[in-house]
Amino acid sequence: MSTNYLACPECDLFIALPVLAAGNKACCPRCHYILTASHYNALDRVMAFAITALLFLLLASFFPFLSINVQGQERTITLLQSISVMVSQHFPVLAVIIFIPVILGPAIYLLLSIYLCLSLKARSLYPHSITAMKFVSHLQHWNMAEIFLIGILVSFIKIISLAEVTLGPSFWAYVLFIPAMSAVSVNIDKYQFWQWIKIKQGMPVFKPVLSPVSGIINFNSCPMCASIMPLSSTSCGFCGTHVDKRVKHSIQKTWAWLITAVVLYIPANILPIMKVKYLGEETANTILGGVIVLWQHGSYPVALIIFIASVLVPIGKILTLAWLCYSVQNGKNRFCKQKTILYRRTELVGRWSMIDVFVVVVLVALIRMGTVMSVYPGPGVLAFCGLVIVTMLAAISFDSRLIWDHGACAEYNKENS
Ligand SMILES: [Zn+2]
Ligand SMILES: [Zn+2]
Question: Do the Cβ atoms of 193 and 65 come closer than 8 Å?
C-alpha cells in the first residue's frame, strides 16, 4: 500500500499516512486534528450538492425574500434588493458585509468546486486548477450563510411585537441552500483534493530525514497543499505558497490584532448598533441594551444566544488567544493537546459573533417606512464588525505549532517511541 507523508497542520507532528479506504478518516495521534476524511464518490457528491446549492442560491436571490406589514403599510424585499438598499442609503460597508459572506463568497466557492471536480474527472487538469483549489481552501473559512439565517430569525423576534412579517419563497430557498452548501464543504476534503491534483500533475514525493537523536524532522510543510519539502525551501514547489517552519512573527502579529480588538470592544459595546424610529420616536440600541429588551419581552433563548455570541464569545476569544500567546512566549509546555483543541474551537466559534451584525443589516434593509417605522445602523455596528474581523485575524495569525515547541515535541516522541 502506498504511503504519503505529511506534517500535522496544527502541531507539526510528522505522520506517514496510508491511502485511506472510502468512509475512513485519519486523526493526528498527538493533537487529534482531523487530517483527512475519505468520502464515497466525493467528486460526484460535491458536484451534485454544489449544483443544487447554486440553484437554491439563485432562487433565493431574485424572488421575494421577506415582507413586512406595519400599520397597514407593506414592504417586500428580495435578497439582492437588500444590498442595493444599503448602497442607496449610503451604507456601502454594510452592503459589502452582507454581499461577500452571504452571496458572492458562497457562489464563487460553489462554482470553483464544480470546476475542480470536472477538472479532476477529466483526462488532464484544466488550467488554473491549483489557483481554484487555493481559493476553495480560503473561502471555506469565510462562508457565513447559516449565521445569516440565524440573524434573520433573531430579527423577526426583535420586531414581532411591532410588525407582521411574512416569509417569501426565496427565504425557503435560502433555508434549503444551507444544508446543500454544508454538504459541499463536508465532502471537500482539502488534503484529499490536493493529493488528487498532485497525482494528476505527477508531483515527485520528497521523503524527509528523521534525525535519530532528537526525533525532530528536518522538513518544511506547505500550509496550503501539505507538501513536504527541504528545510531550506521558502516557497512550496507545487502550489507556490510561502512556507515557513513557523509563521514569522506569529505571536507579535496575534498580540497586535488582540490589542486592536480590545480597543474596538469599547465603542462596539458603548455606541448604539442600531436606531429605531417608530411613530416619530427614536430609540438607540446598544448590543447589551438589545439583549435586555429581548429578555424583558420573555425571549430568553434568543437573548442568551445574542449575549453569548456578541458579548461572551469575543471576550473569550481575546482571553484564550492572549493566554496562548503568553504560554508560548514563556515556554510553558504543559497541556499542549488541550491548548491546541481550545485554539481550534476558538477559531470555529468566533464567526458566530456576526449574528448581531446580520440582525442589524436585515432590519435596516427591511424596515424603511418613513415616519411610521424605520431602522438605521448605529456607529457601534462598524466597530463591532471590525471587532469580529480583527479577532478572526488574530486567530489566523496564531501559529498553533508553537504550542508544541520548547521540548514538548521531543517529550512526546520519547513517550511514544
Ligand atoms: Zn497534530
Ligand atoms: Zn503547497
Answer: no
Which residues are within 5 Å of ligand 2 (an ion), measured at CB? 222, 224-225, 227, 236, 238-239, 241
The candidate with the shortest Cα–Cα distance to 183, out of 20, 47, 23, is: 47
User: Hey, what's the cell of 392?
Assistant: 478572526
Helix, coil or strand: residue 151: helix
User: For 8, what's the count of Cα atoms within 13 Å in the CB-facing half-sphere?
Assistant: 23
Q: Is the dihedral of CA 140, 141, 143, 145 positive or negative?
A: positive
Count the domains in the chain.
Answer: 1
Cα(121) to ligand 2 centroid in Å equals 21
Q: Which ligand is nearest to the CA of 194?
A: 2
Q: What range defines the domain where residue 54 resides?
A: 3-415
Query: Whose atoms come closest to the Cα of 401: which ligand?
Result: 1
Looking at all shown ligands, the one closest to residue 201's CA atom is 2
State the distance from the centre of ligand 2 to the C-alpha of 416, rounded, in angstroms.
Answer: 29
Q: Are 222 and 241 in contact (CB under 8 A)?
A: yes
Threshold 0.85, pTM exceeds: yes
Instruction: State the first-to-last Cα distance of the chain, in angstroms, to the nearest integer.
Output: 23
Ligand found nearest the CA of 224: 2
Listed in sequence order, the DSSP H helices in 9-104 are: 42-62, 79-88, 92-99
| Predicted confidence pLDDT, tens digits, the chain (417 residues) | 467 888 899 988 888 888 888 889 999 998 999 999 999 999 999 999 999 999 999 999 989 998 888 888 888 889 888 888 888 877 888 888 888 888 999 999 999 999 999 999 999 899 999 999 999 998 887 788 889 999 998 888 888 777 888 899 999 999 999 999 999 999 999 999 999 999 888 776 666 655 544 445 678 889 899 888 888 888 998 899 999 888 889 999 999 999 999 999 999 999 999 888 888 888 888 989 889 988 988 888 888 988 998 899 999 999 999 999 999 998 877 888 999 999 999 888 888 888 888 988 888 888 887 778 888 888 899 999 999 999 999 999 999 999 988 765 555 545 554
Measured in Å, residue 87 CA sits from the centre of ligand 1 at: 45
Is the separation of the CB atoms in 120 and 132 below 8 Å?
A: no
Residue 81 CA to ligand 2 center (angstroms) comes to: 40
How far from the centroid of its chain's Cα atoms is residue 355's Cα? 13
